[in-house]
Specification:
The protein has 326 residues and is α/β, with parallel strands linked by helices. 44% of the residues lie in helices and 14% in strands. The protein folds into 2 domains: 248 residues, Alpha-Beta Barrel (TIM Barrel), CATH 3.20.20; 68 residues, Non-ribosomal Peptide Synthetase Peptidyl Carrier Protein, Chain A, CATH 1.10.1200. The protein has 14 helices and 10 strands. 47% of the residues are buried.
């Protein structure tokens, strides 16, 4: 699968953009375990052009996490164009610039951005053309959903229009905005788009990919060019190595043992501290510990200690105890 000149291999397994999750420390960890590409947390175009620190810090890219995409969102054609220009002028440019037309949360969709754009399709196309025209030599992609609700599943009708605007790949989450993350993802709609003879850009599937069997079905039964994984990666960056092994062998790797889980948690914390400093690095990694050690028996008290420790030194000491005692 190629996004313009970027070759991601025959069937890439990609880390989805997730707010408060896919920062550089987590992205580099997922790349370590075999993710073929990753995307940043979504970034407000309005925040970027106002030089808001919360938005600017999300532009950070580590060289060892490439290929990586930066994702932006907004409902205004001019601010999205300006944000694209800013990103195109960076010294450390992303490999891909992605437009978020899929976020379902009220504070985004309610303002006409994210999946709220489905209520104004002409604006979706204006924004897409504006970003493509202002992104310089960075290929532009789109991540979106099926439509606003079950009565307006329109992605099959507008996929060609998005392609004609100049995007180089399209990722589709198989749910509507109103579904949020509930119910089943409808991959058959994504398959129909891939089978459209006018569609020549790669089509990536997203939604309900939780294991190697899901990724294989998306490839073999639905014919998609790649799969994107979101929530199933939280606390489980090794899902990428397992899925890629399964795609080759139809067998799973052994489940991660305590040593593997501790190693991932240590690496994550060390990178977070190096990136954001001691205080924020410790605080922002706390939310991952329950996921890293999910299913470990009698872990509640230790989890509380991990999530209340104030320094990285304390956390590393507790992780050593976990490795020795569980």
């Amino acid at each position: 699968m190629k996004i313009k000149d970027l070759d991601l291999g025959e069937y890439p397994v990609i880390l989805a953009p997730m707010e408060d999750i896919t920062d550089p420390p987590f992205r580099t960890l997922c790349h370590q375990y075999g993710a073929d590409m990753s995307y940043s947390e979504f970034i407000s175009a309005d925040g970027l052009i106002r030089n808001a620190e919360k938005s600017l810090v999300k532009l950070d890219i580590e060289e060892n996490e490439r290929p990586v995409g930066i994702q932006i969102f907004g409902a205004n054609e001019q601010s999205m164009a300006q944000a694209a220009q800013m990103i195109a002028s960076l010294d450390r440019k992303p490999d891909v610039l992605d437009i978020n037309f899929g976020c379902p949360v009220g504070k985004v969709a309610g303002k006409g951005a994210g999946s709220g754009i489905f209520q104004d399709i002409p604006n979706m196309m204006r924004i897409t053309r504006a970003v493509v025209n202002n992104a310089g030599n960075i290929p532009v992609t789109v991540k979106t959903r099926l439509g606003w609700d079950e009565h307006s599943i329109v992605i099959a009708d507008i996929a060609e229009e998005l392609q004609d605007c100049g995007i180089q790949a399209l990722t589709i989450h198989g749910r509507t905005r109103c579904q949020m993350y509930k119910g089943e993802a409808h991959w058959e709609v994504i398959r129909d788009i891939k089978q459209n003879p006018r569609i020549v850009i790669p089509i990536v599937g997203n939604g309900d990919v939780r294991c190697g069997e899901d990724a294989m079905r998306m490839r073999d039964e639905y014919g998609l060019d790649g799969c994107m994984i979101g929530r199933a990666t939280v606390g489980s960056p090794w899902i990428f190595s397992d899925i890629k092994h399964f795609l080759r062998t139809k067998e799973h790797l052994p489940a991660p043992d305590i040593a593997e889980r501790v190693s991932a948690a240590r690496t994550h914390l060390a990178r977070a501290v190096a990136w954001k400093g001691e205080r924020l690095g410790v605080l922002e990694t706390r939310k991952h510990y329950a996921a890293y050690f999910k299913g470990v028996e009698n872990f509640k008290d230790t989890r509380i200690r991990l999530c209340t420790a104030d320094t990285s030194g304390e956390v590393f000491d507790i992780l050593t105890e976990v490795e020795n005692n569980f």
